[in-house]
Amino acid sequence: MHHAPEADGTALRRCVLAVSVLDDIDLEPADDGVLVPDLTGVLVTWQMIRQVVGSEPAESETARHRVGVLLRLHRLAADLGDEAAAGFREALRLVALPPGHADHLGPDWVVQALPGGALELGYGVYGLLDDPDRCVPLPPSLAARVGARGRDSWAALREYTERMGALSAARLARDGVSGVIRPVGGCDVLALLTSRTLRKHLAEGDGVGMRAVASPTRQRAWYDLRHVDPDFVRTAWHLTDGPERGLETPLLVTTDEVAVPRQPRRGRHAAL
């Protein structure tokens, strides 16, 4: 299997400098990592930074976004001091993302893969940064520090998300054929699709056991015919900012899986 080379130290330093300028974060690069001057004794190591950058080019917009989130969350944890663990645990949410997404923090972040292969699941926190309605993945370097690791913690998060999915299904049943799924309880629509209750409601809604669902953005998903048109999904996906994007193609949802349908091969069969 081919693995992308790790970003070198010079490229990471340029990435951090860009984050400092663009996000207005005071930083002091050091041999071991990055110091935020107003956080005495807090060091974000180069390994922590490299971990969230992953295989992305270190000077890309995606890398800068991930590093900016990492540094702001570490700064917040330091600001909260002894209250950090409680504050972060209260904000914990399940995040579901496709591999390669701008917010996806790599294999160390993934706790579980959803059957079907479309989404990978990990810890996130809701409402702690600039946007009170936004959920961001929790970097592995912070998860253990705030007590967001372990079987019991993950089971509680899955159970909460299942309840939010059930609430979403109840709302869809109450509202009739609206065809729109919206966030519930700090869970965006990709997280809600990890709920078996919601998947069952969608898949069995028209009696065929599966449903096409379009989620070009993490804030809305549609299952009416007009919005699952591939051209609509692709256009909406491209018009959405990277961190808020969902999937570029419609999903196929069954009670047990969320999958990306295989694209037809070009040539004779496609022409047919």
Automatic annotation (TrEMBL):
Name of the featured protein: Uncharacterized protein
UniProt organism field: Kineosporia corallincola
